[in-house]
Prior knowledge:
The complex is a heterodimer of chains A (301) and B (324).
Chain A: H1 2-22, H2 25-29, H3 33-55, H4 86-122, H5 124-139, H6 142-153, H7 157-167, H8 169-183, H9 187-194, H10 199-211, H11 213-236, H12 247-251, H13 257-262, H14 268-292, H15 294-297
Chain B: E1 6-15, E2 22-32, E3 37-41, H1 48-55, E4 63-65, E5 70-73, E6 76-77, H2 83-92, E7 94-97, H3 101-104, H4 111-122, H5 127-140, H6 146-150, H7 159-173, E8 177-181, H8 189-206, E9 209-214, H9 217-223, E10 226-231, E11 234-240, H10 241-246, H11 251-258, H12 298-302, E12 307-310, E13 313-316
Parallel strand pairs in B: 3-9, 3-10, 7-8, 8-9
Antiparallel strand pairs in B: 1-2, 1-4, 1-5, 5-6, 10-11, 11-13, 12-13
Helix pairs in contact in B: 2-4, 4-5, 4-7, 5-7, 7-8
Amino acid sequence: MEQVVAGRQSADKTRRRQQKASGGFWSRYARSKAALLGLGVIGLEIVVFTLGPVLLQLDPYTLGREFNTPPGAGHILGTDEFGRDLLARLLYGGGVSLFIGMAATLIGMVVGLPLGLLAGYYRGKTETVVMRLADLFLSVPEMVLILVLVAAFRPSVPALTLIIGIMSWPGAARLIYGNTLTVREREYIQAARTHGLSDLRILSGYVVPNVVSPLWMTMPFHCARAILTESALSFLGVGVQPPQASLGNLLYAAQNIVVMSSRPWMWVPAGLCLIATVISINFIGEGIRQALDIRDNLVRP
Amino acid sequence: MAEALLQISDLSISFGGGAGELRAVDRVSLAVHRSEVLCLVGESGCGKTLTALAILRLLPPEARLGAESEVRFGGRDLLRLPERELDKVRASDIAIIFQDPASSLNPTQTISRQLTDAIRQGQKISRRKAQAAALAALSEVGIPSPELRLKEYPHQLSGGMKQRIMIAMTLAKQPSLLIADEPTTSLDVTVQAQILHLLHRLRREQGTAILFITHDMGVVAQMADRVLVMYAGQVVEHGGARGVFHRPAHPYTQGLLRSVPRPDRKYERLNVIEGSVPLPGQPASMCRFAERCGFCRPLCRSAAPPLTERDGAFARCFRYTEEW
Protein backbone atom coordinates (compact mmCIF):
# COMPACT_ATOMS: atom_id res chain seq x y z
CA MET A 1 0.00 0.00 0.00
CA GLU A 2 2.72 2.43 0.98
CA GLN A 3 4.63 1.52 -2.11
CA VAL A 4 1.68 2.36 -4.27
CA VAL A 5 1.39 5.77 -2.61
CA ALA A 6 5.12 6.37 -2.98
CA GLY A 7 4.90 5.36 -6.61
CA ARG A 8 2.07 7.78 -7.23
CA GLN A 9 3.96 10.54 -5.50
CA SER A 10 7.03 10.04 -7.63
CA ALA A 11 4.85 9.96 -10.72
CA ASP A 12 3.38 13.29 -9.61
CA LYS A 13 6.86 14.62 -9.14
CA THR A 14 7.97 13.55 -12.60
CA ARG A 15 4.91 15.14 -14.09
CA ARG A 16 5.59 18.36 -12.27
CA ARG A 17 9.18 18.29 -13.45
CA GLN A 18 8.02 17.67 -16.98
CA GLN A 19 5.68 20.62 -16.84
CA LYS A 20 8.47 22.80 -15.60
CA ALA A 21 10.97 21.52 -18.12
CA SER A 22 8.60 22.12 -20.95
CA GLY A 23 8.14 25.77 -19.97
CA GLY A 24 10.06 28.69 -21.38
CA PHE A 25 13.48 29.99 -20.45
CA TRP A 26 12.17 31.97 -17.51
CA SER A 27 10.39 29.08 -15.81
CA ARG A 28 13.50 26.94 -16.16
CA TYR A 29 15.65 29.74 -14.77
CA ALA A 30 13.28 30.25 -11.86
CA ARG A 31 13.73 26.63 -10.78
CA SER A 32 16.98 27.62 -9.08
CA LYS A 33 16.52 29.61 -5.86
CA ALA A 34 20.11 30.81 -5.91
CA ALA A 35 19.64 32.16 -9.43
CA LEU A 36 16.53 34.06 -8.33
CA LEU A 37 18.38 35.40 -5.29
CA GLY A 38 21.29 36.53 -7.47
CA LEU A 39 18.96 38.28 -9.86
CA GLY A 40 17.18 39.94 -6.93
CA VAL A 41 20.42 41.21 -5.37
CA ILE A 42 21.78 42.60 -8.63
CA GLY A 43 18.44 44.17 -9.50
CA LEU A 44 18.28 45.78 -6.09
CA GLU A 45 21.86 47.03 -6.44
CA ILE A 46 21.12 48.59 -9.79
CA VAL A 47 18.11 50.40 -8.39
CA VAL A 48 19.86 51.54 -5.21
CA PHE A 49 23.08 52.59 -6.98
CA THR A 50 21.27 54.66 -9.56
CA LEU A 51 18.38 56.10 -7.58
CA GLY A 52 19.89 56.06 -4.07
CA PRO A 53 22.28 59.00 -4.31
CA VAL A 54 19.65 61.15 -6.04
CA LEU A 55 16.82 60.37 -3.66
CA LEU A 56 18.91 60.58 -0.50
CA GLN A 57 20.72 63.66 -1.81
CA LEU A 58 24.09 62.20 -0.95
CA ASP A 59 27.34 63.75 -2.04
CA PRO A 60 30.43 61.56 -2.19
CA TYR A 61 32.90 64.39 -2.83
CA THR A 62 32.25 67.12 -0.23
CA LEU A 63 34.80 67.16 2.51
CA GLY A 64 33.08 67.43 5.88
CA ARG A 65 34.28 68.58 9.21
CA GLU A 66 33.82 65.25 10.92
CA PHE A 67 36.75 62.96 10.14
CA ASN A 68 36.87 59.25 10.80
CA THR A 69 33.53 59.12 12.55
CA PRO A 70 32.08 55.65 13.12
CA PRO A 71 28.58 54.90 11.80
CA GLY A 72 25.96 56.98 13.54
CA ALA A 73 22.99 59.26 13.18
CA GLY A 74 24.49 61.88 10.82
CA HIS A 75 26.40 59.48 8.63
CA ILE A 76 24.85 56.05 8.50
CA LEU A 77 28.10 54.34 7.50
CA GLY A 78 30.42 56.91 9.06
CA THR A 79 32.99 59.13 7.34
CA ASP A 80 36.51 58.64 6.00
CA GLU A 81 39.68 60.50 6.89
CA PHE A 82 38.67 63.46 4.70
CA GLY A 83 35.22 63.63 6.25
CA ARG A 84 33.39 62.32 3.17
CA ASP A 85 30.16 60.42 3.73
CA LEU A 86 30.89 56.71 3.30
CA LEU A 87 27.33 55.68 2.41
CA ALA A 88 27.44 58.12 -0.50
CA ARG A 89 30.81 56.75 -1.57
CA LEU A 90 29.63 53.16 -1.27
CA LEU A 91 26.59 53.81 -3.48
CA TYR A 92 28.55 55.77 -6.07
CA GLY A 93 31.44 53.34 -5.98
CA GLY A 94 29.18 50.33 -6.31
CA GLY A 95 27.58 51.93 -9.34
CA VAL A 96 30.94 52.58 -10.93
CA SER A 97 32.12 49.02 -10.34
CA LEU A 98 28.92 47.49 -11.67
CA PHE A 99 29.03 49.73 -14.73
CA ILE A 100 32.64 48.78 -15.49
CA GLY A 101 31.78 45.08 -15.12
CA MET A 102 28.82 45.16 -17.46
CA ALA A 103 30.27 47.52 -20.05
CA ALA A 104 33.55 45.60 -20.19
CA THR A 105 31.65 42.34 -20.74
CA LEU A 106 29.68 43.94 -23.55
CA ILE A 107 32.84 45.25 -25.20
CA GLY A 108 34.51 41.84 -24.97
CA MET A 109 31.48 40.27 -26.59
CA VAL A 110 31.12 42.86 -29.32
CA VAL A 111 34.76 42.35 -30.28
CA GLY A 112 34.98 38.60 -29.72
CA LEU A 113 31.74 37.46 -31.36
CA PRO A 114 32.38 38.69 -34.92
CA LEU A 115 36.03 37.71 -34.83
CA GLY A 116 35.27 34.18 -33.64
CA LEU A 117 32.47 33.91 -36.17
CA LEU A 118 34.60 34.96 -39.13
CA ALA A 119 37.50 32.75 -38.05
CA GLY A 120 35.26 29.71 -37.72
CA TYR A 121 33.24 30.29 -40.87
CA TYR A 122 35.94 31.25 -43.34
CA ARG A 123 38.81 29.19 -41.85
CA GLY A 124 42.08 29.63 -43.75
CA LYS A 125 44.05 32.82 -43.20
CA THR A 126 41.34 34.59 -41.20
CA GLU A 127 41.30 31.67 -38.80
CA THR A 128 45.07 31.64 -38.38
CA VAL A 129 45.36 35.38 -37.77
CA VAL A 130 42.42 35.69 -35.38
CA MET A 131 42.99 32.58 -33.33
CA ARG A 132 46.77 33.00 -32.99
CA LEU A 133 46.12 36.58 -31.89
CA ALA A 134 43.72 35.19 -29.29
CA ASP A 135 46.41 32.75 -28.14
CA LEU A 136 48.84 35.64 -27.89
CA PHE A 137 46.43 37.58 -25.68
CA LEU A 138 45.81 34.54 -23.51
CA SER A 139 49.50 33.75 -23.09
CA VAL A 140 50.37 37.14 -21.60
CA PRO A 141 49.54 37.45 -17.88
CA GLU A 142 46.41 39.58 -17.97
CA MET A 143 47.15 41.60 -14.86
CA VAL A 144 50.62 42.63 -16.00
CA LEU A 145 49.37 43.71 -19.42
CA ILE A 146 46.50 45.68 -17.92
CA LEU A 147 48.90 47.38 -15.47
CA VAL A 148 51.13 48.43 -18.36
CA LEU A 149 48.21 49.67 -20.46
CA VAL A 150 46.68 51.56 -17.56
CA ALA A 151 50.03 53.19 -16.83
CA ALA A 152 50.35 54.19 -20.48
CA PHE A 153 46.85 55.63 -20.89
CA ARG A 154 46.32 57.17 -17.41
CA PRO A 155 43.59 55.47 -15.44
CA SER A 156 40.00 56.70 -15.91
CA VAL A 157 36.69 54.87 -15.89
CA PRO A 158 36.27 54.79 -19.71
CA ALA A 159 39.88 53.73 -20.29
CA LEU A 160 39.65 51.05 -17.61
CA THR A 161 36.40 49.71 -19.06
CA LEU A 162 37.82 49.59 -22.55
CA ILE A 163 41.03 47.86 -21.49
CA ILE A 164 39.35 45.24 -19.30
CA GLY A 165 36.75 44.68 -22.01
CA ILE A 166 39.23 44.22 -24.80
CA MET A 167 41.31 41.89 -22.68
CA SER A 168 38.33 39.55 -22.43
CA TRP A 169 37.68 39.15 -26.17
CA PRO A 170 39.67 35.90 -26.64
CA GLY A 171 37.29 34.02 -24.33
CA ALA A 172 34.21 35.01 -26.30
CA ALA A 173 35.98 34.57 -29.65
CA ARG A 174 37.15 31.05 -28.83
CA LEU A 175 33.74 29.95 -27.66
CA ILE A 176 32.03 31.27 -30.80
CA TYR A 177 34.82 29.95 -33.02
CA GLY A 178 34.48 26.42 -31.67
CA ASN A 179 30.73 26.37 -32.14
CA THR A 180 30.93 27.90 -35.60
CA LEU A 181 33.31 25.13 -36.65
CA THR A 182 30.64 22.53 -35.95
CA VAL A 183 27.67 24.53 -37.21
CA ARG A 184 29.28 25.43 -40.55
CA GLU A 185 29.35 21.74 -41.45
CA ARG A 186 25.64 21.26 -40.78
CA GLU A 187 23.41 20.46 -43.68
CA TYR A 188 21.14 23.44 -43.19
CA ILE A 189 24.08 25.70 -43.89
CA GLN A 190 24.69 23.83 -47.10
CA ALA A 191 20.97 23.91 -47.85
CA ALA A 192 20.99 27.69 -47.37
CA ARG A 193 23.92 27.88 -49.75
CA THR A 194 22.02 25.87 -52.34
CA HIS A 195 19.35 28.55 -52.30
CA GLY A 196 22.05 31.03 -53.26
CA LEU A 197 21.96 33.01 -49.99
CA SER A 198 24.85 35.40 -49.46
CA ASP A 199 27.45 34.80 -46.76
CA LEU A 200 26.12 37.72 -44.75
CA ARG A 201 22.60 36.27 -44.75
CA ILE A 202 23.89 32.81 -43.88
CA LEU A 203 26.02 34.17 -41.04
CA SER A 204 23.33 36.35 -39.53
CA GLY A 205 20.33 34.09 -40.02
CA TYR A 206 21.77 30.60 -39.87
CA VAL A 207 25.08 30.61 -38.00
CA VAL A 208 24.75 33.26 -35.28
CA PRO A 209 21.45 32.01 -33.81
CA ASN A 210 22.93 28.54 -33.56
CA VAL A 211 26.18 29.54 -31.86
CA VAL A 212 25.40 32.35 -29.42
CA SER A 213 23.57 30.59 -26.62
CA PRO A 214 26.73 29.43 -24.79
CA LEU A 215 27.80 33.06 -24.78
CA TRP A 216 24.77 34.03 -22.69
CA MET A 217 25.89 31.73 -19.93
CA THR A 218 29.49 32.88 -19.90
CA MET A 219 28.61 36.58 -19.92
CA PRO A 220 27.81 36.82 -16.20
CA PHE A 221 31.04 35.04 -15.32
CA HIS A 222 32.96 37.51 -17.48
CA CYS A 223 31.14 40.34 -15.76
CA ALA A 224 32.09 39.06 -12.29
CA ARG A 225 35.69 38.71 -13.37
CA ALA A 226 35.75 42.22 -14.78
CA ILE A 227 34.45 43.63 -11.50
CA LEU A 228 37.12 41.74 -9.58
CA THR A 229 39.82 42.96 -11.97
CA GLU A 230 38.67 46.55 -11.54
CA SER A 231 38.68 46.16 -7.77
CA ALA A 232 42.13 44.65 -7.77
CA LEU A 233 43.50 47.47 -9.91
CA SER A 234 41.83 50.12 -7.79
CA PHE A 235 43.07 48.45 -4.64
CA LEU A 236 46.59 48.67 -6.05
CA GLY A 237 46.00 52.36 -6.76
CA VAL A 238 46.09 52.16 -10.55
CA GLY A 239 42.37 51.74 -11.14
CA VAL A 240 39.62 54.25 -10.58
CA GLN A 241 41.31 57.35 -9.15
CA PRO A 242 40.08 59.18 -6.05
CA PRO A 243 38.15 61.31 -5.48
CA GLN A 244 35.96 59.16 -7.72
CA ALA A 245 34.86 56.11 -5.78
CA SER A 246 34.69 52.43 -6.69
CA LEU A 247 34.41 49.31 -4.55
CA GLY A 248 38.10 48.66 -5.12
CA ASN A 249 39.41 52.03 -4.09
CA LEU A 250 37.20 52.05 -1.02
CA LEU A 251 39.06 48.91 -0.02
CA TYR A 252 42.28 50.82 -0.65
CA ALA A 253 41.76 52.34 2.77
CA ALA A 254 42.39 48.94 4.31
CA GLN A 255 45.99 49.09 3.19
CA ASN A 256 46.59 51.31 6.19
CA ILE A 257 47.08 49.08 9.22
CA VAL A 258 45.37 51.53 11.60
CA VAL A 259 42.28 51.68 9.38
CA MET A 260 42.30 47.94 8.92
CA SER A 261 42.36 47.16 12.61
CA SER A 262 40.49 50.00 14.30
CA ARG A 263 38.18 51.57 11.70
CA PRO A 264 36.39 48.63 10.08
CA TRP A 265 33.46 50.81 8.89
CA MET A 266 35.76 52.26 6.25
CA TRP A 267 36.25 49.04 4.34
CA VAL A 268 33.94 46.27 5.60
CA PRO A 269 30.77 47.51 3.80
CA ALA A 270 32.63 47.87 0.48
CA GLY A 271 34.13 44.39 0.91
CA LEU A 272 30.78 42.82 1.73
CA CYS A 273 29.17 44.62 -1.18
CA LEU A 274 31.86 43.36 -3.55
CA ILE A 275 31.50 39.78 -2.36
CA ALA A 276 27.70 39.90 -2.56
CA THR A 277 27.84 41.35 -6.07
CA VAL A 278 30.29 38.82 -7.44
CA ILE A 279 28.52 35.85 -5.87
CA SER A 280 25.13 37.06 -7.12
CA ILE A 281 26.41 37.48 -10.66
CA ASN A 282 27.86 33.99 -10.53
CA PHE A 283 24.49 32.66 -9.34
CA ILE A 284 22.85 34.33 -12.32
CA GLY A 285 25.37 32.73 -14.66
CA GLU A 286 24.76 29.31 -13.14
CA GLY A 287 21.01 29.83 -13.43
CA ILE A 288 21.28 30.72 -17.11
CA ARG A 289 23.53 27.73 -17.68
CA GLN A 290 21.01 25.38 -16.11
CA ALA A 291 18.16 26.91 -18.04
CA LEU A 292 19.94 26.57 -21.35
CA ASP A 293 21.63 23.22 -20.77
CA ILE A 294 19.73 20.55 -22.65
CA ARG A 295 21.05 17.75 -20.49
CA ASP A 296 19.60 19.25 -17.31
CA ASN A 297 16.24 19.70 -19.01
CA LEU A 298 15.87 16.27 -20.53
CA VAL A 299 12.49 14.87 -19.72
CA ARG A 300 13.00 11.24 -18.84
CA PRO A 301 9.98 8.98 -19.25
CA MET B 1 17.99 14.27 -79.66
CA ALA B 2 17.66 17.85 -78.44
CA GLU B 3 20.39 19.35 -76.36
CA ALA B 4 20.44 18.00 -72.81
CA LEU B 5 19.44 20.23 -69.90
CA LEU B 6 22.39 19.09 -67.88
CA GLN B 7 25.43 17.47 -69.40
CA ILE B 8 28.16 16.13 -67.16
CA SER B 9 31.24 14.93 -68.97
CA ASP B 10 34.33 13.21 -67.64
CA LEU B 11 33.69 14.29 -64.06
CA SER B 12 36.47 13.07 -61.79
CA ILE B 13 36.72 13.83 -58.11
CA SER B 14 39.65 12.79 -55.99
CA PHE B 15 40.87 13.20 -52.45
CA GLY B 16 44.44 13.50 -51.26
CA GLY B 17 47.37 14.01 -53.58
CA GLY B 18 50.40 12.21 -54.97
CA ALA B 19 50.68 8.49 -54.31
CA GLY B 20 47.84 8.47 -51.78
CA GLU B 21 45.35 9.95 -54.21
CA LEU B 22 41.92 8.38 -53.96
CA ARG B 23 39.69 8.72 -56.96
CA ALA B 24 36.14 8.69 -55.61
CA VAL B 25 34.47 9.56 -58.91
CA ASP B 26 36.14 8.41 -62.11
CA ARG B 27 35.27 10.03 -65.45
CA VAL B 28 31.51 9.98 -64.99
CA SER B 29 29.47 11.29 -67.89
CA LEU B 30 25.72 11.67 -67.87
CA ALA B 31 22.96 13.78 -69.35
CA VAL B 32 19.62 14.83 -67.94
CA HIS B 33 17.03 15.96 -70.49
CA ARG B 34 14.13 18.32 -69.98
CA SER B 35 11.37 16.92 -67.73
CA GLU B 36 12.84 13.47 -67.43
CA VAL B 37 13.71 11.52 -64.33
CA LEU B 38 17.18 10.04 -64.31
CA CYS B 39 17.88 7.68 -61.44
CA LEU B 40 21.42 7.38 -60.21
CA VAL B 41 21.75 4.02 -58.48
CA GLY B 42 24.57 2.46 -56.53
CA GLU B 43 25.65 1.36 -53.09
CA SER B 44 27.03 3.61 -50.35
CA GLY B 45 30.36 5.17 -51.23
CA CYS B 46 30.12 4.62 -54.98
CA GLY B 47 30.22 8.35 -55.69
CA LYS B 48 26.55 9.15 -56.30
CA THR B 49 26.32 11.95 -53.79
CA LEU B 50 29.68 13.46 -54.74
CA THR B 51 28.52 13.61 -58.34
CA ALA B 52 25.37 15.43 -57.28
CA LEU B 53 27.23 17.88 -55.04
CA ALA B 54 29.74 18.64 -57.78
CA ILE B 55 26.96 19.96 -60.02
CA LEU B 56 26.38 22.92 -57.70
CA ARG B 57 30.00 23.09 -56.52
CA LEU B 58 29.10 22.04 -53.00
CA LEU B 59 31.98 19.60 -52.61
CA PRO B 60 34.06 19.72 -49.44
CA PRO B 61 37.11 21.96 -49.91
CA GLU B 62 39.57 19.04 -49.78
CA ALA B 63 37.98 17.39 -52.83
CA ARG B 64 39.77 18.00 -56.13
CA LEU B 65 38.15 18.01 -59.54
CA GLY B 66 39.81 16.42 -62.55
CA ALA B 67 41.05 18.89 -65.16
CA GLU B 68 38.83 17.60 -67.95
CA SER B 69 35.66 17.63 -65.79
CA GLU B 70 32.79 19.64 -67.17
CA VAL B 71 29.22 20.31 -66.01
CA ARG B 72 27.27 22.08 -68.73
CA PHE B 73 23.94 23.65 -67.85
CA GLY B 74 22.15 26.11 -70.08
CA GLY B 75 25.22 26.46 -72.29
CA ARG B 76 27.57 27.30 -69.44
CA ASP B 77 30.12 25.28 -67.50
CA LEU B 78 29.01 25.43 -63.86
CA LEU B 79 32.41 24.28 -62.64
CA ARG B 80 34.05 27.40 -64.02
CA LEU B 81 31.31 29.94 -63.40
CA PRO B 82 32.13 32.94 -61.18
CA GLU B 83 30.70 32.56 -57.66
CA ARG B 84 28.05 35.29 -58.12
CA GLU B 85 26.72 33.79 -61.33
CA LEU B 86 26.64 30.41 -59.65
CA ASP B 87 24.61 31.84 -56.77
CA LYS B 88 22.01 32.92 -59.32
CA VAL B 89 21.83 29.42 -60.75
CA ARG B 90 21.51 28.03 -57.24
CA ALA B 91 18.81 30.54 -56.40
CA SER B 92 16.52 29.86 -59.32
CA ASP B 93 17.55 27.17 -61.80
CA ILE B 94 18.75 24.12 -59.91
CA ALA B 95 17.39 22.97 -56.59
CA ILE B 96 18.71 20.21 -54.39
CA ILE B 97 17.11 18.29 -51.56
CA PHE B 98 19.08 16.17 -49.20
CA GLN B 99 18.67 12.84 -47.53
CA ASP B 100 17.97 14.06 -44.03
CA PRO B 101 15.28 16.76 -43.95
CA ALA B 102 15.74 17.14 -40.20
CA SER B 103 19.22 18.56 -40.58
CA SER B 104 18.50 20.54 -43.74
CA LEU B 105 16.38 23.07 -41.89
CA ASN B 106 17.76 25.74 -39.61
CA PRO B 107 16.53 24.85 -36.09
CA THR B 108 16.49 28.46 -34.91
CA GLN B 109 14.24 30.00 -37.53
CA THR B 110 10.57 29.58 -38.38
CA ILE B 111 9.51 27.71 -41.49
CA SER B 112 8.08 30.93 -42.86
CA ARG B 113 11.36 32.80 -42.59
CA GLN B 114 13.33 30.01 -44.27
CA LEU B 115 10.83 29.60 -47.08
CA THR B 116 10.64 33.30 -47.83
CA ASP B 117 14.44 33.58 -47.68
CA ALA B 118 14.74 30.92 -50.34
CA ILE B 119 11.96 32.36 -52.49
CA ARG B 120 13.20 35.93 -52.35
CA GLN B 121 16.66 34.79 -53.34
CA GLY B 122 15.33 33.51 -56.64
CA GLN B 123 12.91 36.31 -57.51
CA LYS B 124 13.06 39.86 -56.25
CA ILE B 125 9.65 40.26 -54.68
CA SER B 126 8.35 41.86 -51.51
CA ARG B 127 8.33 39.96 -48.24
CA ARG B 128 4.55 39.89 -48.25
CA LYS B 129 4.36 38.40 -51.73
CA ALA B 130 6.99 35.85 -50.79
CA GLN B 131 4.93 34.97 -47.75
CA ALA B 132 1.92 34.36 -49.95
CA ALA B 133 4.03 32.24 -52.29
CA ALA B 134 5.31 30.26 -49.32
CA LEU B 135 1.77 29.62 -48.16
CA ALA B 136 0.75 28.50 -51.64
CA ALA B 137 3.77 26.20 -51.89
CA LEU B 138 2.97 24.59 -48.55
CA SER B 139 -0.62 23.80 -49.50
CA GLU B 140 0.65 22.61 -52.87
CA VAL B 141 2.75 19.91 -51.21
CA GLY B 142 -0.20 18.78 -49.17
CA ILE B 143 0.58 20.16 -45.75
CA PRO B 144 -2.57 20.51 -43.65
CA SER B 145 -3.26 23.96 -42.12
CA PRO B 146 -0.23 25.62 -43.72
CA GLU B 147 -0.84 28.98 -41.97
CA LEU B 148 -0.06 27.33 -38.65
CA ARG B 149 2.91 25.38 -39.95
CA LEU B 150 4.51 28.56 -41.27
CA LYS B 151 4.83 29.93 -37.75
CA GLU B 152 6.41 26.77 -36.39
CA TYR B 153 10.00 25.72 -35.95
CA PRO B 154 11.50 22.61 -37.58
CA HIS B 155 11.52 20.59 -34.35
CA GLN B 156 7.73 20.85 -34.16
CA LEU B 157 7.29 18.97 -37.43
CA SER B 158 7.57 15.31 -38.41
CA GLY B 159 10.18 13.97 -40.81
CA GLY B 160 7.79 13.64 -43.72
CA MET B 161 6.51 17.14 -43.08
CA LYS B 162 10.04 18.53 -43.14
CA GLN B 163 10.85 16.81 -46.41
CA ARG B 164 7.65 18.27 -47.87
CA ILE B 165 8.80 21.67 -46.76
CA MET B 166 12.13 21.13 -48.48
CA ILE B 167 10.19 20.21 -51.62
CA ALA B 168 7.93 23.23 -51.17
CA MET B 169 11.04 25.41 -51.19
CA THR B 170 12.08 24.01 -54.54
CA LEU B 171 8.52 24.16 -55.84
CA ALA B 172 8.31 27.88 -55.18
CA LYS B 173 11.53 28.43 -57.10
CA GLN B 174 10.23 26.56 -60.15
CA PRO B 175 13.66 25.22 -61.05
CA SER B 176 14.26 23.43 -64.32
CA LEU B 177 16.32 20.78 -62.55
CA LEU B 178 15.82 19.18 -59.16
CA ILE B 179 18.56 17.09 -57.63
CA ALA B 180 17.09 14.74 -55.05
CA ASP B 181 19.76 12.98 -52.99
CA GLU B 182 18.04 9.98 -51.38
CA PRO B 183 15.08 12.15 -50.35
CA THR B 184 13.08 9.27 -48.91
CA THR B 185 15.71 7.16 -47.18
CA SER B 186 15.01 8.48 -43.70
CA LEU B 187 11.24 8.29 -44.05
CA ASP B 188 8.86 5.40 -43.49
CA VAL B 189 7.23 3.66 -46.45
CA THR B 190 3.87 5.42 -46.42
CA VAL B 191 5.44 8.85 -46.27
CA GLN B 192 7.96 7.73 -48.88
CA ALA B 193 5.13 6.92 -51.28
CA GLN B 194 3.58 10.35 -50.70
CA ILE B 195 6.86 12.11 -51.36
CA LEU B 196 7.46 10.14 -54.56
CA HIS B 197 3.96 10.97 -55.68
CA LEU B 198 4.67 14.62 -55.02
CA LEU B 199 7.86 14.54 -57.07
CA HIS B 200 5.98 12.89 -59.91
CA ARG B 201 3.42 15.69 -59.87
CA LEU B 202 6.16 18.29 -59.80
CA ARG B 203 7.60 16.81 -62.95
CA ARG B 204 4.24 16.51 -64.66
CA GLU B 205 2.94 19.97 -63.82
CA GLN B 206 6.07 22.08 -63.96
CA GLY B 207 8.14 19.99 -66.32
CA THR B 208 10.98 19.80 -63.82
CA ALA B 209 13.75 17.37 -64.68
CA ILE B 210 14.82 15.28 -61.71
CA LEU B 211 18.17 13.71 -60.99
CA PHE B 212 17.14 11.14 -58.44
CA ILE B 213 19.79 9.49 -56.34
CA THR B 214 18.94 6.31 -54.48
CA HIS B 215 20.02 2.81 -53.65
CA ASP B 216 16.49 1.49 -53.46
CA MET B 217 15.55 -0.45 -56.61
CA GLY B 218 11.87 -0.28 -55.67
CA VAL B 219 12.00 3.51 -55.78
CA VAL B 220 13.85 3.38 -59.10
CA ALA B 221 11.10 1.25 -60.61
CA GLN B 222 8.52 3.83 -59.58
CA MET B 223 10.36 6.94 -60.64
CA ALA B 224 12.84 6.42 -63.42
CA ASP B 225 12.70 7.17 -67.13
CA ARG B 226 16.32 6.26 -67.43
CA VAL B 227 18.68 4.57 -65.01
CA LEU B 228 22.37 5.02 -64.46
CA VAL B 229 24.17 2.48 -62.29
CA MET B 230 27.41 3.44 -60.57
CA TYR B 231 29.95 1.11 -59.06
CA ALA B 232 33.19 2.14 -57.32
CA GLY B 233 33.16 5.61 -58.81
CA GLN B 234 32.37 4.57 -62.37
CA VAL B 235 29.25 4.36 -64.49
CA VAL B 236 28.81 0.62 -65.11
CA GLU B 237 25.49 0.66 -66.88
CA HIS B 238 22.99 3.08 -68.23
CA GLY B 239 19.87 2.84 -70.30
CA GLY B 240 16.09 3.17 -70.31
CA ALA B 241 14.42 2.07 -67.08
CA ARG B 242 12.44 -0.69 -68.78
CA GLY B 243 15.53 -2.14 -70.43
CA VAL B 244 17.64 -2.06 -67.32
CA PHE B 245 14.96 -3.78 -65.29
CA HIS B 246 14.03 -6.43 -67.80
CA ARG B 247 17.39 -7.15 -69.35
CA PRO B 248 20.12 -5.87 -67.05
CA ALA B 249 23.44 -6.09 -68.88
CA HIS B 250 26.14 -5.62 -66.29
CA PRO B 251 26.66 -8.47 -63.80
CA TYR B 252 26.52 -5.94 -60.96
CA THR B 253 23.09 -4.69 -62.02
CA GLN B 254 21.91 -8.25 -62.38
CA GLY B 255 23.09 -8.97 -58.87
CA LEU B 256 21.40 -5.85 -57.56
CA LEU B 257 18.07 -6.77 -59.09
CA ARG B 258 18.24 -10.32 -57.79
CA SER B 259 18.75 -9.03 -54.28
CA VAL B 260 15.44 -7.14 -54.23
CA PRO B 261 12.78 -9.06 -52.31
CA ARG B 262 9.77 -9.94 -54.47
CA PRO B 263 6.35 -10.60 -53.02
CA ASP B 264 5.39 -12.97 -55.87
CA ARG B 265 8.15 -15.44 -55.13
CA LYS B 266 7.86 -16.97 -51.72
CA TYR B 267 10.42 -18.80 -49.60
CA GLU B 268 13.33 -17.93 -51.80
CA ARG B 269 16.69 -16.98 -50.44
CA LEU B 270 17.70 -13.48 -51.48
CA ASN B 271 20.76 -13.19 -53.63
CA VAL B 272 23.89 -11.73 -52.10
CA ILE B 273 26.71 -10.24 -54.14
CA GLU B 274 29.77 -11.87 -52.59
CA GLY B 275 32.78 -9.82 -51.56
CA SER B 276 32.94 -6.07 -51.13
CA VAL B 277 33.65 -2.90 -53.08
CA PRO B 278 37.33 -2.45 -54.00
CA LEU B 279 39.13 0.49 -52.38
CA PRO B 280 39.24 3.56 -54.60
CA GLY B 281 43.04 3.32 -54.76
CA GLN B 282 43.19 0.04 -56.70
CA PRO B 283 44.89 -0.25 -60.11
CA ALA B 284 42.91 1.12 -63.05
CA SER B 285 43.98 -1.61 -65.46
CA MET B 286 41.34 -4.17 -64.53
CA CYS B 287 37.59 -4.49 -64.23
CA ARG B 288 36.58 -3.15 -60.83
CA PHE B 289 33.87 -5.74 -60.45
CA ALA B 290 36.15 -8.66 -61.40
CA GLU B 291 36.65 -9.92 -57.83
CA ARG B 292 32.93 -10.33 -57.28
CA CYS B 293 31.82 -11.35 -60.75
CA GLY B 294 30.59 -14.81 -61.73
CA PHE B 295 31.61 -14.32 -65.35
CA CYS B 296 35.15 -13.21 -64.60
CA ARG B 297 37.84 -14.30 -67.06
CA PRO B 298 41.59 -13.54 -67.17
CA LEU B 299 40.80 -10.77 -69.67
CA CYS B 300 38.84 -8.92 -66.95
CA ARG B 301 41.93 -8.76 -64.75
CA SER B 302 44.28 -7.58 -67.44
CA ALA B 303 42.40 -4.57 -68.81
CA ALA B 304 39.64 -2.15 -67.86
CA PRO B 305 36.47 -2.74 -69.85
CA PRO B 306 35.05 0.17 -71.89
CA LEU B 307 31.42 1.32 -71.78
CA THR B 308 29.93 -0.80 -74.55
CA GLU B 309 26.62 -0.43 -76.32
CA ARG B 310 24.11 -3.22 -76.27
CA ASP B 311 20.54 -2.74 -77.56
CA GLY B 312 20.63 1.03 -77.10
CA ALA B 313 21.90 0.75 -73.53
CA PHE B 314 25.45 0.86 -72.27
CA ALA B 315 27.36 -1.46 -69.94
CA ARG B 316 30.95 -1.46 -68.79
CA CYS B 317 31.61 -5.15 -69.35
CA PHE B 318 33.76 -7.23 -71.69
CA ARG B 319 30.92 -9.63 -72.36
CA TYR B 320 29.51 -7.24 -74.93
CA THR B 321 32.79 -6.55 -76.68
CA GLU B 322 34.36 -8.56 -79.44
CA GLU B 323 37.28 -9.67 -77.28
CA TRP B 324 34.97 -11.93 -75.22
